[in-house]
Amino acid sequence: MAHFDATNAAVEVHAFKEGLLAAMGHDLKIRVTRFSIDIAEDRSSLTATFDPDSLVVESVLNGSDLSAKDRGEIESNIRKKVLHPARYPEIRFASTAIEPVADGLRITGELTLHGTSRTLSVCSHRVGGEQIVEVPLHQPDFGIKPFKAPLGVIKIKPEVHIRVSLKADVSAS
Known about the structure:
Blueprint lengths: L1 E3 L4 E7 L1 E2 L9 E5 L2 E5 L6 E5 L4 E6 L7 H16 L7 E11 L2 E10 L2 E12 L2 E9 L16 E2 L2 E8 L7
Antiparallel strand pairs: 1-5, 2-4, 2-13, 3-12, 4-7, 5-6, 6-8, 8-9, 9-10, 10-11, 11-13
């Protein structure tokens, strides 16, 4: 079994702003700090769990910086107004099929997020010595209301992008 966590992998959420005063908001790179991804040695199954209470704002995508106060406020909003980890303490993915493709794997399975399960099919690809999976997620599909500031003048787009990087080549050999 190949095991991945924050010591040998990275999970990022990219969230993008919109709205009347979007110029005052930030496109964010958010890091998941507690997760576990396990892949069977024969690549027949994959399971992954992510702690929704472990998301931290890593940076602003345009390169500008945030104050500690702004980071704290954004992280609090993620927990209290978006993911509700007290009610939904785990995000889980379990594969139902894995097949080799090009320089990676096509992985199909069930993603349970915010109490809602949906079938998801993704492909990994090699970049250097890493396998990368990029997943667009439409938050409302999982019962999540994208964050919006009072009066909706700044809000997060419904689609966020998840990027999982495994520091190993797990493609078919």
